[in-house]
Amino acid sequence: MVLIAATVCTKSGKALVSRQFVEMTKARIEGLLAAFPKLMTGGRQHTFVETESVRYVYQPLDKLYMLLITTKASNILEDLETLRLFSRVVPEYCTQLTEAEVLNQAFNLLFAFDEIVALGYRESVNLAQVRSFVEMDSHEEKIYQAVRQTQEREAANRMRERAKELQRERLEAAKRGAPPRSQMSFGSGFGSSSMSSSASIEPVAEKVPSTPARDTRPAGRSAMKLGSRGTDTESFVSRLRSEGDAVPAAAAPATDHAKPPPSDHKDVHLRFEERLSLVAGRDGDVQNFELSGLLTLRISNEQFARIHVHVDNKDTRPLQLQTHPNVDKEAFRSSGVIGLKQSQRAFPLHSDVGVLKWRLNANDDKLAPLSVNCWPSEGAGGGCDINIEYELEHDHLTLNDVNIHIPLPSGNTQVVVHQWEGSYAQKGRTLIWSIPIINKQQKSGSLEFTVAPAVPNDFFPLTVMWTSDTSLALLKAVKVTQAEDNSPVDFSQEISFHPDKYEIV
């Protein structure tokens, strides 16, 4: 094995973070680390020192040392190259090269060390790749978080229903003159409903959140329940406290009042929301593309509770469309009409109801809404000349507040910008290029700058963010009509399209 261990230690030899790459006893490693300060006596200015069994390759980091312990048979040139990469990784995660900061970032440093060396041998990676690998999302963690949020939401719904039941019992006991029941255990049952709140639309609602629904219907009215949402945990706890024994038994029941809609929202309001996750290569090839969308309906007037929403789908791409289980699928497939299967039922009032979701998964290079081309080239003096250009690929889109985040190399680097569109700002080790609007009339632009010292891989991955009131999928609500007589209904709509992840790697 070539590389035995990598350590960040003080000049007195105290190991702050140490990663062992070969099978060796703890006592042996501690003995090797303890011997290092003794070999540094005499004011050595070299970058390595050897003993009878191992070689110490080191580099000062202010008041610390980046130390590699290797076998004597290893290639010293490769060891020095590996040491330089380790020395660049430490400032990447530690804003200050102090003992406290190194200990605080210990896990990130260990993860980065594991990306550089595997089983004692150097991996063919650079700093940008190490940064990208450490920051990668965990699919298992996402699943765990989704399951946990679902469990918390269901528990909050059960507790809310039980709290309402307790409040009704208190009021009935107060009317009869009997003392309220203060000792009640929370059950696990839900209140009866014509439709379960955990409908199949829920997974998309998890990705495309909407405004929490508040039910304002009278207690005796029977209506179906679409895409219900629970209040958050803090507000629910405060409500439980307010319903405790300290509240007088004759207190009036609390009623939910619907939050008044914004002034530009009409009695029937539609919201199209799309989210995009895209990873593209440096040559423009799309490695991962996932578009998800949700259409929600909000009705604020009871006379419009039975309506049909007419949706026009002009998208020729393989969109996967799915309606809510209580929506008439045949009517939507044949004529693009979103309406309830049972005409005698009505949509709920004052709540955001998910009625249609869509998804597009593909690796087609033509699907990317915005192409970003980054050309770093090595210049004289160890620096890099970087040319970045963008171009809007779909003319029907308008992207606002576009920000392109460009990573910069760590250390003392000098950035000189020669040409740009919009504006730019440097924040730490990131150059943020901002473009106010990109549309059909202003669909392309470029940025040129020079950084020294640097290598081309330092400027990846690029991250792009924007907001937009246009959608990538060509879905549009053309009209809304009454279910009984097909008379037109005035409605408002809003569109939101933004990226969850948009990277050029």
UniProtKB/TrEMBL annotation:
Membrane disposition:
Peripheral membrane protein
Where's the MHD domain?
265-505
The cross-references to Pfam families, in alphabetical order and at most eight, read: Adap_comp_sub, Clat_adaptor_s
Question: What keyword terms does UniProt attach to this protein?
Answer: Cytoplasm, Cytoplasmic vesicle, ER-Golgi transport, Golgi apparatus, Membrane, Protein transport, Transport
Please give the residue ranges the record annotates as the region Disordered.
171-266
Q: What is its main location?
A: cytoplasm
Which residue ranges have biased composition labelled Low complexity? 182-200, 246-255
Basic and acidic residues composition bias: residue spans:
256-266
Gene Ontology CC terms: COPI vesicle coat; Golgi membrane
A single BP term in Gene Ontology:
protein transport
Q: Where is this chain's protein located in or outside the cell?
A: Cytoplasm; Cytoplasmic vesicle, COPI-coated vesicle membrane; Golgi apparatus membrane
Source species, domain of life: Eukaryota
Assembly: Oligomeric complex that consists of at least the alpha, beta, beta', gamma, delta, epsilon and zeta subunits.
Q: What does this protein do?
A: The coatomer is a cytosolic protein complex that binds to dilysine motifs and reversibly associates with Golgi non-clathrin-coated vesicles, which further mediate biosynthetic protein transport from the ER, via the Golgi up to the trans Golgi network. Coatomer complex is required for budding from Golgi membranes, and is essential for the retrograde Golgi-to-ER transport of dilysine-tagged proteins.
**Family under the similarity heading:** Belongs to the adaptor complexes medium subunit family. Delta-COP subfamily.
Name it: Coatomer subunit delta
Species whose genome carries this gene: Trichoplusia ni
